[in-house]
Amino acid sequence: MSPWLPGLLLGLGAAGAAATAQAQDEALPFKLTTGAYHGSQSGWGLDTNLRYSSERVGHAWVGYFRSHGLDASQWRAGWDQSFGQALRVQPSLQLAQGGFVGGSVNVETGERWVVGAGLGRTNLKPYANLNFDPNDSWSLLAAWRAEGGRSLTASWVRDNRQNPDQRHLHLIWREPLADGHRLTLDVLLKKGRVDERLVRRAGLTLTWDAPRWFARLAYDPQTNFTPDNSWRLSAGVRF
């Protein structure tokens, strides 16, 4: 399953949108997402994910991924939560078919201006996480968050175990729109060595959120620093 190796955003999405989405999570606690993936080397894959969110539980999810091109599939589940106010600690846990166990801890502080750091670790078993950032990694985060949900976030994720020179830089802009809609743009810059060859590529993710549904289109070149260039189209509904 090498083209679908681990990826954990280490709080990029959840941390940046937590305050804005909390009321929505309480009103519409379930989110069902289906994603279609196509890799230039690995072919087509399909992922289905159901998430439950509440202030008390945090976020708990279960998902199933099937790669038709690789003839591989995997059930997986996870949980994350945020604790504290001035200093926010965000642990997460992931389990998956085949014996995978992984987790992360992120810490951040600040309201309008935010800084944070994170650490992720796994038992190195295969995991169809589908975010494509390194799982065994550390991260740094800096963000500006305005009232109303507008924000700009920069996050640096670097592998700290098997490929320590491989790193991702995310620049994320969130713009609130009319009627509860929101546009999110995530620009990815990746750099690292593969077999003594330096890889420098750029990717892009565009997400449109509405109160009850969302859609996302992403391009991830040389996914996990493999020859695979991946496109991802996801759509979901909240209820």
Per CATH, the class reads Mainly Beta
**What is the CATH architecture term?**
Beta Barrel
Tell me the domain tally.
Answer: 1
Strand content: over 45%
| Estimated radius of gyration | 17 Å
Kindly identify the CATH topology: Porin
Outline the structure in words.
- This protein is mainly β and 239 residues long.
- It has a single domain (2-21, 82-238), classed as Porin (Beta Barrel).
- It contains one helix and 14 strands; from the N terminus they run H-E-E-E-E-E-E-E-E-E-E-E-E-E-E.
- The chain has one helix at residues 12-27, and strands spanning 30-39, 43-54, 58-67, 72-80, 87-96, 100-109, 113-122, 137-145, 151-159, 167-176, 182-194, 197-209, 213-220, 230-238.
- A 14-stranded antiparallel beta barrel has the order 1-2-3-4-5-6-7-8-9-10-11-12-13-14.
- A hairpin with a 5-residue loop joins strand 10 (167-176) and strand 11 (182-194).
- Mean pLDDT is 89; it is low at 1-23.
Topology:
Layout: H1 12-27, E1 30-39, E2 43-54, E3 58-67, E4 72-80, E5 87-96, E6 100-109, E7 113-122, E8 137-145, E9 151-159, E10 167-176, E11 182-194, E12 197-209, E13 213-220, E14 230-238
What are the salient characteristics of this protein?
single chain; 239 residues; mainly beta; Porin; 14-stranded antiparallel β-barrel; 1 helix; 7% helix; globular; disordered N terminus
Concise description?
With 239 residues, the protein is mainly beta. The chain has one domain: Beta Barrel (Porin). It is built from one helix and 14 strands, in the order αββββββββββββββ.
